[in-house]
Amino acid sequence: MPAAKRGLAVLLAAAALPGCGGSDDTPDARTTTQPAAAVGGDQRGVLDTIDALQTASRSGDGRRICSRLFTPQLVRSIEKSSARSCPAEVRARLFRRDESLAVQRGIDVRGSTATAVIRDSGGGVSTLHMLKRAGRWRIDRVMPRGAS
After folding, report:
1. Taking a C-beta distance cutoff of 8 angstroms, is the pair 103, 21 a contact?
2. Which of 11, 86, 114, 144 has the most CB atoms around its CB within 10 Å?
3. CB 36 within 8 A of CB 123
4. Would you say the pTM of this structure is higher than 0.85?
5. For residues 111 and 109, what is the distance between their CA atoms, to the nearest angstrom?
6. How far apart are CA 63 and CA 111, in angstroms?
7. Is 14 inside any structural domain?
8. Among the listed residues 106, 136, 85, 122, the one whose alpha carbon sits nearest the alpha carbon of residue 9
9. What is the DSSP string of 50-89?
10. What pLDDT, in 10s, does the model give residues 43-55?
C-alpha cells in the first residue's frame, strides 16, 4: 500500500480504539503505579476528535469522518489520490473494525496546531497533525513513521 494510503489506513484503524490514554514504550512506564498527568483542555479536544473518529469508523460513517473530522485539505488530497469521493474511499479502503490504535506519546499542542503519535495493532506508527478550526480539532495530515 502506498505510504499516503497506509498512513490513512493507520489513522482509520481507530475503529477498535480501546481508549485514548497515552502509553510509552519504556518498561518503567508500563509498570508504574503513579497516576498519569491530567489531560489539558486542548489535549482533551484532540482526544475527543480521535474518539469521534473511532465512533464514526465503527459505524462505517465515511461521510462524518470526511466532513467533520478531516480538514478540507485532507479530504481534497484523499479525493485526488483515489479519484473518488472521500467517504467512498474511507468506506472501501480504510475502514478496519478489527484493528486497534493507541496514542503512544504525549499530545503536543502549540496554539491552533497539535500532533499526536499513534500506534496501530500491527506495529505501525504515525503522527497525526491536527488543526483547530472554529473551536474544533480536525485531522489535517497523517505521516507514517514506520513499523517496529
Report:
1. yes
2. 11
3. no
4. no
5. 6
6. 28
7. yes
8. 122
9. HHHHHHHHHTT-HHHIIIIIB-HHHHHHHHHHHTS-HHHH
10. 999 989 887 877 7
